[in-house]
Structure formats: structure tokens, C-alpha cells
Amino acid sequence: MNVTLSVLADCANITEDGKLNIMGVFGEINPPELPFALPMMYLVLGFSASPSEIGSEKDIIIILMDGEGRRKLVIESKAVVPPPKRSGSPTYIQTILGLAGCKFEHEGVYDFAIQVNGEEKTRIPLRINTPRREDLDDTAEREHNDDKEDT
Q1: From edge to edge, which strands make up the β-sheet containing 91-104?
Q2: What span, in angstroms and rounded, lies between the C-alpha atoms of 21 and 11?
Q3: Which phi and psi angles does 42 have, rounded to 5°?
Q4: Least crowded by CB within 10 Å, which of 80, 90, 127, 151?
Q5: Distance separating alpha carbons of residues 9 and 81, to the nearest angstrom
Q6: Within the chain, where are the H helices?
Q7: How many CB atoms lie within 10 A of CB 143?
Q8: Nearest CA among 16, 39, 14, 25 for reference residue 124
């Protein structure tokens, strides 16, 4: 089984008739501060499998790693390769994984490694940029104003 599509997006869905909709594909984030928890993102994956793989079970592992190779998130799943929609064609599988609240501790490049049966098939890099000084100043001012309102 091979990975044919791998992106991070703001929104994704699959229609009733099997169309894959992806909006807001991205490869970097400009957080207002660090650490930063991204409220929501979607990991969109497409797989293809040959006819000889029909009915076989595949171990799918998604690993989010920081630039030092430390594992921040591990998602494990099993999938059975279904028959293709058309006889003689490869099987295509689309999957969308919603990830809420992923926390990024520091700037740098993080990677989503996609493994099938223990073999890394692809990586999706995600760059977390340094918060801009004006963003930090705005955050500090908002917190200061919130403190004033509480008194």
C-alpha cells in the first residue's frame, strides 16, 4: 500500500458520492505565542493498494515528531484493504483525521511520519515559526487589559 496524498488542512470532508474536499492546505503556522495549541487541523491521507493486497490487514501509524525526533503524538490504526470500486483497478482509500489541540512547544520543523506495516511511506513537514514581536506585544497588552477588567 502506498501513500498517494498527504496534506495538512484547515478543513476537509468526503461527500456522499466520495469526493474529497480540502480547504486551507498549509505547511507552516505563525503562532501568536509559544507554546501554542492549534485549535483544529485535518490530516488528509490517500492510499492506493494493488489487487494482490485486497483483504489484507495493514497497520497504519502516524507519528508527530519535533525537530529533535522526539515523538509528540502517536496514532495507531488497522485497516483492511477493500476491493476496488471497479474490477481490475487499484483500491483507493481516502481518510481524514481531525486533530484538535495539538500543542507545539517551540519553533522549528515538526514532521508527521506516515508508516504502513512498519515502513515509513511519507512525511508531512510542518514549520512552526517564531512569534513576531508585535504579536507578543499584542498578547501582553491583552493580558494586561484583562487584568485591569478583573479589578
Answers
A1: 20-26, 2-14, 36-49, 91-104
A2: 8
A3: -120, 130
A4: 151
A5: 25
A6: 133-150
A7: 10
A8: 25
- How many degrees, rounded to 5, is the angle at CA 7 between CA 122 and CA 44? 100
Within 50-90, strands assigned E span 57-65, 71-80
pTM of the predicted model as reported, rounded to 2 decimal places:
0.84
Question: Which one, of 106, 107, 81, lies nearest residue 93 by Cα?
Answer: 81
Residue 64 near residue 73, CB atoms below 8 Å? yes
Sole residue written with cell 502506498: 2
Range of the domain at 116: 2-150
Q: How many domains does the chain have?
A: 1
Number of neighbours of residue 9 by Cβ within 10 angstroms:
16
Q: For each successive 10 residues of the chain (151 residues), what is the average pLDDT? A: 97 95 98 97 97 95 96 96 89 96 96 98 98 67 61 55
E-strand ranges in 81-118 read 91-104, 108-116
Q: Report the CATH number that the domain containing residue 130 is assigned in CATH.
A: 2.60.40.1930
Residue found by looking up cell 522549528 in the block: 108
Question: CA torsion sign, 89 to 75 to 64 to 136?
Answer: positive
Pairing of strands 108-116, 119-128: antiparallel
- What's the gap between Cα 141 and its chain centre? 32
